[in-house]
Amino acid sequence: MISAAAWALIGDVKPAGALPHLASPTIVFVALLYFAGVVAISVWAARRTRTARDFFVAGHGIGLVALTVASVSTSVSGFAFIGGPGLLYTIGLGALYIVLPASITNVMGAWVLAKRMRLLGEVRGLMTVPDAIGARYRSPGAQGLAGVAMLIAIVGYMATNCLAMGYVINAIFGTGIVWGIWIGMGITLAYSVAGGILAGIYNDVFQGTLMALASALVFGYVLSVNGGMSGISHAIMPAFPTFLGPWGNITPIAALSFFFVFGMGSLGQPQGVHKYYMLKDPQQLKWYPLLKTLGLILVLLLFFGVGVGVKALVASGRMAPLTTPDAATPSFLLGFTPVVLAALVFSGVAAATMSAVNSFINIGAAVVTHDIPVALGRKVKNELYWGRISTLIIAIVAATVAQFSGSMVAFLGVFGWGLFGSTLVPALAFGLNWEGATRQGAIASMSTGLLVTLVFETLAWFKAYSFPAGVAVSGMSLVLSILVFFAVSWATRKSAAGQLDPDVRIVMEV
Amino acid sequence: MITSTKRTALAAIVISTLAIGSAYASAFGTGGPPVWAGWLFAAGVTGALVGTLALGATRPDRGLGRLVGPFLLMTVIISAGFIAVFALPELGASEPLLLGLPRRAAIVLYGIGLLPTLVLPVAYALTFSDQTLRPEDLERVLATARAARETRALAEEGRP
Predict the structure, then answer these.
(1) pTM value?
(2) Do B105 and A293 touch (CB under 8 A)?
(3) Which residues, at least 6 apart from A425, have a Cβ–Cβ distance to it below 8 Å?
């Protein structure tokens, strides 16, 4: 999904290219073993899921290491292994600006959101990201608007991940893409409906651990095959002079747009923010940013290594130029690493897309069964039951959209990323840290993000109007929603103090 | 209570966002964005990130405390990285290597990308108990949570 957003940021929305069919019994065997592990974890989690709180926030009972590994795993999804290396192979070092903010974003999330959301969860018993917005501004309307924006974004996110899941399962088992989508969704649904977020978290831990291990091993092979980093640079620089330039093959504005959107925008990604509620003990947050940053660096070694390593192999004539960027990782793995390592990576990618889908199904189900009813002044009686029903419906809708949307699925992914950032960052991240923020500012900001993203992404999709190259709709909508948030909050500042409940104020002051 | 540190952080976010918006706006002119737009965007994104970090880390009674140093260092690292990347000449294939990468690429990857990892997450962990979540603050919130739970329970039972 991030890959789709990244392509759009450089003004070149590309539908994903089908991966080559791997046709290896070893890869099929390892993938089956992998899925057996996923099923076993899901059965265990289902037995521990008894209430809506267990289903949506794992009963506020996840430990530091599990939360960190799961969070790393959800952050990168299949992008780190397939889409990211392909993007780097194509646009050069400019693609690195997507992941460069990782050294800042995790600690920024910890300072700005983690403690406050975890403590708000403690005080108010909150379960969802829109819950926090509703509590902050004492506004069911703001909570509902955040929920609706998230739901629209989630359909986009999930459709993109469903399609990615279809591509990977087809590559491993040769099922065809449509069957790949539905088989993947079937497995994901089985553990989402039964085990909720608990199954998702522990499956993330399982696959995140393997991803980190596989990533480090693949990076080692990249260096070994190419004669280290110097060998890679010496091969690339004469053949592709701009590739290892500071902006790669894109403009400085486009590269810096990546840095801004993936840096600031990270504060509005619910799959990461939502996990703050789940930590068992708030004091464990102490080591969370450091551990998560180190984990991300480890997992992203493959993204960087394969991206530049394959370019070096092509530059030195040891590999034919790729027919599609997404073939970078499969081509390297099948040509230069043991088949067991390739199998591990492919299984990891399949599991990663499933884990992303699971995470978004869960968040979407919470919006449907909790946030929207709250906005309408109603309360769902059996949230666990309706959570499971919503999970099923959202999954079917997303898989159907993925199956029939064709190349529009990339557009939906871009749309989702932009919406999360522009609708949630100002109201949530700044609002929880600034007593002067007002309900009017939050609603105006979320409406601006929703409108700008909706209008300009749609115009661009229908080729009616596009921003100049390098100017991203997601970046522009984030800028505008931040400015509207501050301007309207300042204009309505007299109402700020009256909109802050005493318990929320305490959480904001500590 | 809005402290001067928080006010400065908020001002930094607004001004930086305006700078990014201006850089974007300059791209709408004929001939694409001017050279200064890249500089302005880099300054804006640095200011927005550091301003947001400061907004989240500042406390009403003690501002940024021991975090002033790490935050200044952070600002210097990212700013110096971007200045170097913009200012150093492009030497093409003859660019000298630094830790295996062309000099400007190395500044981007190791300087802007990896170096902050050694500063911010470590500063967060080392100052956590006195700057981010003091035990007495946590106890205060937990007491508030207990009181809120009791109030909710009474309300559900229909008692005042």
Answers:
(1) 0.90
(2) no
(3) A264, A265, A267, A268, A478, A481, A482
